[in-house]
Amino acid sequence: MTSHEELFGAAPEGLWAAPGRVNLIGEHTDYNEGFVMPFALPHTARATVSRRADRVLRLYSRDVPGDPVELDLDGLVPRTVQGWAAYPAGVAWALQEAGHEISGADIAIESNVPVGAGLSSSAALEVVTGLALSDLNGLDLAPDVIARLGQRAENDFVGMPCGILDQMASACCTAGHVLYLDTRDLSRRQVPFAMALEGLRLLVVDTQVKHAHADGAYANRRAECEAGAAALGVPFLRDVPFDGLADALARLTDDTVRRRVKHIVTENRRVERVIELLDAGRARDIGPVLTEGHASLRDDFEISCPELDLVVDTAGAAGALGARMTGGGFGGSAIVLVEETAAEAIGKAVLSAFDAEGYRPPRVFEAIPSPGAQRLPL
Ligand code: GAF
Questions:
Q1: Residue 182 maps to which CATH number?
Q2: Is 218 annotated as ligand-binding?
Q3: Is residue 215 domain-shared with residue 354, that is, in the same domain?
Q4: Average pLDDT of the chain?
């Protein structure tokens, strides 16, 4: 592997890592100022960085063949950088837009967060860049500030209207915990989630499909939620209480908007139910809530796909405690909560079902709640 010094002619000043995530529950609630519950995966984006005396930003990916991308820090223009480099470049842009002075830098990134799998490979790139540039420029930014800068980069520089879930997960999660996050004010609590101690496993099934219309459909869902909030006269769907749902639904005339509202309001309630169960030491009992969440995403929010439904249905029939798609939808990954003793059989059942349907084999791995972004020894 070509070293940082061979690539850039200067030794790296540090090494930083930021993880991908799964979201246990709370899907598409973030841009509605609701609740989410992600945890970090052991998979990370890692960056070696050295500062430069000039105003050049050089970005190199160890995963994507090609020469370093070279940019002028003073000439970064939203939506002009293509591909993976848009994420780190967008963070440099967002830092400066926020009034921070940063020096030129050489950045080499590698990542083992699966791309296009709904596991936040983009947020990992953003957060690792934000943390490294914060440290090297003496900015000392808090993790939630770095997360917001990552979101700004993605919204305004890349052009994807995501919420704050993925960046907060990558920046703020801790090992052995799920992050219970209120996306309205970013208040949060680390909730112990030591599945192995309770004889449980959480499997990730990466279907390895990403349906082509995913990004446009995400923006549509966001617009439909905003239309629902406007029709109900509230700032965000977070402001529709669960016990006022029937009344709210009766006031909506558009059937599509009505179903989107139903998903968001019930999903916020599901996050509360999961947190109540985890707080009561009843991790096993969250299974049915996860499966109910999947049905809501499939039927009311309409962002599942045949491959994700097959994972959930097959795992359920094979004895899983619960299963749901995770992330933005239209492909990507599902999570499956299983008894440790049944994990292997359920994984095999899913693989066989994909084979029987003629689908490409999914990647199945265990999700272990892992640390958030951090500086590592070189
Ligand atoms: C994607 C987005 F980036 C997040 O902000 C969130 O909306 C998620 O989809 C769905 O919960 O990962």
A1: 3.30.230.10
A2: yes
A3: yes
A4: 97
Whole-model pTM?
Answer: 0.98
Is 130 a pocket residue for ligand 1 (Cβ < 6 Å)?
A: no
- Going by their DSSP bridges, the two strands 35-36 and 38-52 should be labelled as unpaired
Residue with tokens 């439909």: 224
Host domain of residue 85:
4-190+371-376
CATH number, domain of 340, equals 3.30.70.890
Pair 96, 61: CB distance under 8 Å: no
Confirm if 364 and 333 have CB atoms less than 8 A apart: no
Q: 18 with 45: CB under 8 angstroms?
A: yes
* Residue 150 Cβ < 6 Å to ligand 1: no
Asked whether residue 277 falls in the same domain as residue 148, the answer is: no
The 10s digit of each residue's pLDDT in 13-60 is 999 999 999 999 999 999 999 999 999 999 999 999 999 999 999 999
Structure tokens at 13: 């000043």
Active site residues: 166
Spatial separation of the C-alpha atoms in residues 120 and 113, rounded to whole Å: 8
| 327 annotated as a binding-site residue | no
Closest CA to 129 of 155, 159, 167: 167
Torsion angle (degrees, nearest 10) of CA 255, 270, 337, 353: -10
Please give the pLDDT value at position 215.
80
Q: Is 29 annotated as a binding residue?
A: yes
CB of 27 closer than 6 A to ligand 1? Answer: yes
